[in-house]
Amino acid sequence: MALQSSPIVVHKFGGAALADAAAISHVAAILAAEPTGPARVVVTSALQGVTNVLLSAIGHALAGEHAEARAIVNALKAREHAVAEGVAAGGDDASREVPATLAVHVGEADDELERQFSTLGGLKGEALGLSDAILAHGERLPRESSPRCSRLAVSPTSWWTARRSCRPTAVTETPRPDLEWTDALAAGIIGPFLDRGLIVVVPGFIGAGGNGAVVTLGRGGSDLTATVLARALDAREVTLWKDVPGCMTADPRLVPEARVVATLDAREASELAYYGAKVLHPRTLIPLRHGMTLRLRPFADPAAAGTTIVVGRVARGAPVRAISGISQQALVAVSGTGMMGVPGVAARVFGILAAAHVSVSMISQASSEQSICFTVPSDRAAEVADRLRTAFAEELARREVDEIVVRSDLTTVAVVGSGMARTPGIAARIFSA
Ligand code: ADP
Ligand code: ASP
Ligand code: MG
After folding, report:
1. How far apart are CA 202 and CA 142, in angstroms?
2. Among residues 82, 221, 187, 202, which one has the least CA distance to residue 142?
3. 242 lines ligand 1 (CB under 6 A)
4. CA of 82 to the centre of ligand 1 (A)
5. pLDDT tens string 327-361
6. pLDDT by residue (tens digit) across 18-27?
């Protein structure tokens, strides 16, 4: 179906911006400030902290600690009702009689959550699917609240991005959105609302596997929902509204003197995200097409420019743009003089990791071929070492491979900037620092 001709922009409001009813009203105010202009799609995540709360309740339920799980869920329900009441009281469209509907929606969502938790207690391996369905609960409240603001339409299905938008993958892998499917479906579902001049609100983070079951796109996944939708709708621009002034030279929670970076190129932004800058889900940039703009703007100061990333455009500035870090990493080294000149050792090492669905974030091989080092998440390191010791048992016995060493609980620090490639002396400064 053809989309309306005016340009589309996607706005994403994350948990950091959605703390309470006042914050939801602020979202409405930001949207109301630009009543004309491009058609808008709004992606929302769960309220601040809710996904963490649900995860901890799931952990207790799976451990058989039902009283703890129940207490957490009850506190969450109380918070959601308070927010719903606050939103209902502060809305701008009295004609819609939303307070009653809102309470019913929130109540229904809560009942479902109760049922899910009572099932979860008896599950073990099958719990993964249900856990995703429970986590998806967090993304529902902002959606239920949205009819309270005039000109907002709620997308017609609870998790429409679910509709076959995720490829089935191995159990241990985070599902990846199926871009082709979403491209094929989005315009037909969302276009008619935009054509009526409405702002469409879509819950982020949630998708469905091949069998239609609810899956989630990994922590911080609503950033990814926003760019997947932007691509599918051929949007001009995506704005991620954040609790920070933009993408900064480092995480301001760790480095208070960090500064905003006005422009980044897509490779720099991807690298920062990949190496742990929480401000962007690691896959956020992937769906965007050449020429599309991604902006990170401060929720608290909507007039500020924030950070702009135009896909395909080189951003100019200092050679080092920003620094990020990914913690809880382990360094695994496979080394031995007998590895020198033996073809296929690296292929075997990484084949074993791939078969175990372990993702490697950094690799280095000594030029003498006597050692291969790589980093994996700390919580997979022991398993990785066991698998390698089993696979290389003969080489270890023959002393061709001397040892497989693991150093856990490290942080990978990434110093990012495209201009570093043409600037001598950066590595020296990094290591001396
Ligand atoms: P949202 O819920 O809106 O997706 P997040 O909490 O996921 O927001 O991301 C915003 C947080 O990312 C900030 O509060 C900040 O602590 C963290 N962060 C990490 N690295 C950076 C960076 N380089 N620039 C800005 N924020 C960063
Ligand atoms: N609510 C989800 C999370 O906390 C998704 C998101 O915030 O983008 O991970
Ligand atoms: Mg996030």
Report:
1. 9
2. 202
3. yes
4. 26
5. 999 999 998 887 777 778 889 999 999 999 898 98
6. 888 888 888 8
